[in-house]
Amino acid sequence: MPDSRWRDGPEDGRYLRPYAITGGRTQHSQHGFALITLVVSRSPDEPQPSHLGPEAAQILHLCRNRAMAVAEIAALLDLPVSVVKVLCGDLLDASLVLVQAPPGRDKQPSVAVIERVMDAIRQL
Asked: What three-state secondary structure class fits 23?
């Protein structure tokens, strides 16, 4: 039997679709998140705002004491990653979370540096 949290109503048997959680959005209009983007609650000691949907409230609860990757949040909540990205963008807009994106290509070491390190390790 499917998980009951996806049901629209217990008696009708319809499923709540992921796009209903995000208001039909498949991506956030201002923020893009990688799977390894870290999310943490801005104020872990403050109570959660009452206007949040249940999924956004769960994200805040998960990220209350430690930073979590978007992919990890999606796995723990059993939600599609695209839904978690939209919800995290909404939480960021509301200044309820802090995010740390992975470094861009310009901050990654060059292939030549990596090869020199590997050569030095082999010589040990």
From this structure: coil
